[in-house]
Specification:
With 632 residues, the chain is an alpha/beta fold. Strand 8, helix 8 and strand 9 form a beta-alpha-beta unit. Helix 5 crosses helix 6 and helix 10 runs parallel beside helix 11. Helices cover 48% and strands 12% of the residues. The protein folds into 4 domains: 73 residues; 242 residues, Tandem AAA-ATPase domain (Rossmann fold, 3-Layer(aba) Sandwich); 199 residues, P-loop containing nucleotide triphosphate hydrolases (Rossmann fold), CATH 3.40.50; 75 residues, no CATH class. The strands form 3 sheets. Strands 8-9-7-10-11-6-12 form a 7-stranded parallel sheet, sandwiched between helices. Strands 13, 14, 15, 16, 17, 18 and 19 form a 7-stranded parallel sheet that branches. The protein has a 5-stranded mixed sheet with strand order 3-4-2-1-5. About 2% of the residues have low confidence.
Amino acid sequence: MYIDIINSSIEISDFNNLKKYHISQFKYFGFLNGDDGVYRLNSLNIGYDLKKLISYIEEENINFTLSESVSDLILKLTKDQIDLEETFKYAKLFKDGTSINESYYQFEAFTRTLPRKLKTHQLKSAYHFYCVKNGANFSVPGSGKTSTLLSVYAKLKLEEKCNLLFIVGPPSCFQPWINEFKETLGRVPTSSILSGGNKSFRKSEYFRSFGNISELYLSTFHTVLNDYREIVTFFSQKGIKPFLIIDEAHYMKQIGGSWATSLLKIGQYAQYKGILTGTPIPKSYKDLFNLFDFLWGDNNPISEEDKIQISIWEKNKKFEDIKNVLEDRIGPCFYRVRKKDLGLTPPIFHEPIIVKMKDDERSIYEAIKAKIFELDQSDYFRDEHILTKLWRGRMIRLRQSISHPKLLLSAIDNYSEKYIDNSDLESKIRNYEKNELSGKLEALTDIVLSLRQQDQKVLIWSNFVGTLKLIKKHFNNLGERAELIYGKTPIRKDDQLQISEEKTREDIRDEFLDIKSGLDILIANPAACAESISLHKSCFHAIYYDLSYNAAQYLQSLDRIHRVGGSEFNTANYYFLQYENSVDQDIKKNLEIKAQKMYDLIDKDYEIYDLDLFEEDEDDIELYKKVFKNNG
């Protein structure tokens, strides 16, 4: 038997006396019989497929001869495997704190030349990545993962091993990468945003000549899915040495199998690859497979046999066995910094500010609560699917009533129960702002104006757009400058398509961070602003006007003013407004329990957890059952 490689195809020829089951096995491996009698496999992973084939024919004692190109490849793969094992061995020793060599001190000396000096935990994380070359940083939000990777990039660029950064992530990460590039490396990069908009423009960027390329490219997951062939062509150009980074990699679970196909292909043409996420195991241990397939390709430390075994163990809930295998296989390949490692000043969580409802507020709240309880009496006539929608909708109504009564006039998707059944109640809700200033808004005003007298900037959180707009209007009327970030606030300006002069989230964020700008109040909702926007350098006070049940968004919102690069010296303060004797207390208690569970999970290396671990919809329903079903 003769084995050869032609382009990306493995070929088997000149075989005699093979048994039928041998041929069947080759077909099972994916080989197809051509008209010339040669069996061919178009391989996406030649190293893996070749090793699998040779292992099989050796077990079966089949005589074979390798072509010169195959022999050379086998030697290279063997050498690469030995080198990789040595790299992983040292990376584990360094990660465990038991070995530091001269290379580390050289790397440390280089980082001291950068404008932004790395913290101790960032330096260790950066050097670990530099050692393994294709690394994963699973550190907690606010630890400085971006600065860490930029430092590695600068060192590799100095060594002429790469010459551009290609970032794939959500649009909200684009501006932070541009800003952090300047802060860390001391210069503004030539950058290109490859996301949405005009595809002909994107293609022109992919086909620029080498001497005219940008240094920083920013793209979304969906754009990469659409453009991966052009990106492969771009990466394949002579002189191009890309460092490909997947930021906020937990979003990959939302893309599906197509993501793996496109990025695995693109990754083959990158000099270096990296993954950044604080939540590496979104729903299953199997979520790690694609991450390390992307990073290591032929040399993935998680073998196919490991994947099968892990899948079986997960079904049987043998989690300790899984963790032991993962620690052995991928433990050396990633670095993790926990919150306790950051050296930040402990934040202050002030006791909730209990607010008494005004007369109209209380009557509206009690009327809505009573109506929901009345509707609850007939629920046993409905099926579970309908009940789920009803219970969720009712709890949203209750939450609206303690945020801003006029929200009760807005529609809710998949919920249409009639809960305002008299004209007096409807009139009271419709004219609420004319009749009284809510108790929460009065309390909020007192806190904000007190902080403003001390020249402090203030961040205000609410989960309802109508409430956000009410708060902004209120403070503007008081002569205070306030800006708003929510879902419809543009994420970035597209130079090719920008028509409106509307401020982007980045514009507002930058102005808010500027101490002398005069913009001292920022109002936002966690769904739009809880991730990728850092405010910790000039804002140390966050007020929660209302809360939802989404623990992940809540934890991320806390990190906006409590991060590396400011919170080592400045104390973050959190304030909570709550109406007395209301569902506010249940929501906060529920949220604190879930937040602590998430903190406990995030502190461990091989636990399954993700940004949607505690779904808001589910908790709306659970609290509904607690508040109403138990009363029944």
